[in-house]
Specification:
17 helices, about 425 residues, Creatine Kinase, Chain A, domain 2, two-stranded antiparallel ribbon, alpha+beta, eight-stranded antiparallel beta sheet
Length: about 425
């Protein structure tokens, strides 16, 4: 995020990226047909193109399409409506091919060993290198869809404040966004199976993901030394040609893009509709702003939160979502909450009165429903249980696909 050679300051610009699966319209099996949507004016297949304010792109696998803000946004207000309009147009295009988009953060029965098709049209040297090193035919590579939030900063002071706030908020995010309870046709053992597989998929070079919670570094120089240099040194034996860039390799739950002047949060599961996605993003931004303003504790205290303790809290959220209990008084104090044990979902409920005014009015009711009913993964588990039949999964995920096109929350039981 740059302008005239300099970066945008805190809260001046935002970026949003949302990934969707392309599936058969009837069976919902994955289909490697992103090429249907990625064509230029001459009909040639491309890896990315721009349609007005929306960018289209593909990364790695051929059954995923990414929709993103083509340029940095001045505000997140209105983006849910813009992306919902685009999805309705896409649905018409895909319907002619017997295809549709499927939301949520993981396909519930995809077999990545048999069904993964790497994108063959551009950047093939990068994708083939990733595949050679990490074997991309797995859920953590081929079956995960997320919403990425990019936040602008300029200079070390902005970065230090934003990075400290982001580190603190990451453990709370699965309580809002977990939307991937099923893999291989059954309960995966975690409400956020996408994140559980994500944190393991590059264990051959563990420094790439680190502890998922980024290290407590608060300057460009420190980040370069403690993160980027270690990534470059660790990948070198596997990538002697230097094909893989440190920015793309960095797989922490939030990554710093000093080349763009932004921090990108990557652990938010894709929801059933854009309204839900943007309600979560706006709540997260509102909370980050309060932390940066030192609403409850000083910046020095916020920056000193222990990385391993934050990681432990995040992993609890990955497993249990909003019902995971926080038993860290120091962490709770960072959000103005006293006590010794409280569910993560209750933390968000207590924070909501301070966040509500920063969420656009059309999404406030959406956010309140999500807080009351819990994360999508929990709602799915309550409906389908741990061992649903294939047909039950197909019916419910078909309704989720309808929710996507209609931009509505998933509410009503179907059987």
């Amino acid at each position: 995020m740059t302008k005239n050679g300099r970066g945008w300051r805190l809260w001046e610009r935002y970026g949003v990226e949302q990934e969707y699966m392309i599936v058969d319209r009837k069976t919902l099996d994955v289909r490697p047909r992103a090429d249907v949507l990625l064509r230029d004016g001459a009909g040639n297949v491309v890896s990315e193109w721009v349609k007005g304010t929306v960018g289209y792109s593909n990364e790695l696998v051929s059954h995923v399409i990414e929709l993103k803000s083509a340029e940095p946004l001045r505000s997140l207000v209105g983006w849910s409506t813009r992306i919902a309009d685009e999805i309705r147009e896409i649905d018409g295009i895909l319907a002619e091919k017997g295809l549709r988009l499927l939301p949520t953060a993981a396909h519930p029965w995809m077999n990545p060993l048999a069904e993964t098709v790497l994108w063959p049209h551009e950047s093939t040297d990068i994708y083939q290198t990733y595949d050679r090193i990490f074997n991309c035919q797995g859920h953590g590579w081929a079956n995960l869809q997320s919403t990425h939030l990019n936040l602008s900063f300029h200079g070390d002071d902005d970065f230090a404040r934003l990075h400290a706030a982001v580190r603190a908020v990451l453990p709370l995010i699965p309580a809002l966004s977990a939307a991937s309870p099923y893999l291989d046709g059954r309960y995966a053992g975690y409400v956020d199976a996408r994140l559980e597989t994500y944190r393991h998929n590059q264990e051959r070079v563990p420094v790439i993901a680190g502890e998922v919670i980024p290290e407590a570094v608060y300057s460009h120089a420190a980040y370069e030394k403690q993160i980027f240099a270690r990534i470059r040194d660790s990948i070198a034996p596997y990538d002697p040609a230097g094909i893989l860039d440190q920015h793309f390799l960095n797989s922490r739950g939030a990554i710093a893009r000093f080349d763009r002047g932004s921090i990108e949060i990557r652990i938010i599961d894709l929801q059933e509709c854009p309204a839900a996605d943007l309600a979560i993003l706006q709540m997260v931004v509102a909370l980050l702003k309060l932390l940066c303003e030192e609403r409850w504790i000083s910046m020095a205290e916020l920056q000193s939160l222990d990385t391993l303790r934050l990681r432990e809290l995040l992993f609890r959220g990955i497993a249990l979502g909003e019902s995971a209990r926080c038993e860290d008084a120091r962490f709770m104090r960072a959000f103005g909450i006293a006590g010794t044990s409280i569910p993560f979902g209750e933390i968000w409920k207590r924070l909501w009165p301070e966040l509500r005014g920063s969420v656009e009015p059309v999404l406030q009711n959406v956010a309140e429903q999500m807080l009351e009913r819990g994360c999508l993964a929990g709602r799915l588990l309550a409906k389908l249980g741990r061992t649903p039949s294939h047909e039950q999964l197909r019916i419910v995920y078909g309704d989720l696909a309808d929710c996507l096109v209609e931009n509505r929350l998933w509410n009503d039981p179907l059987f």
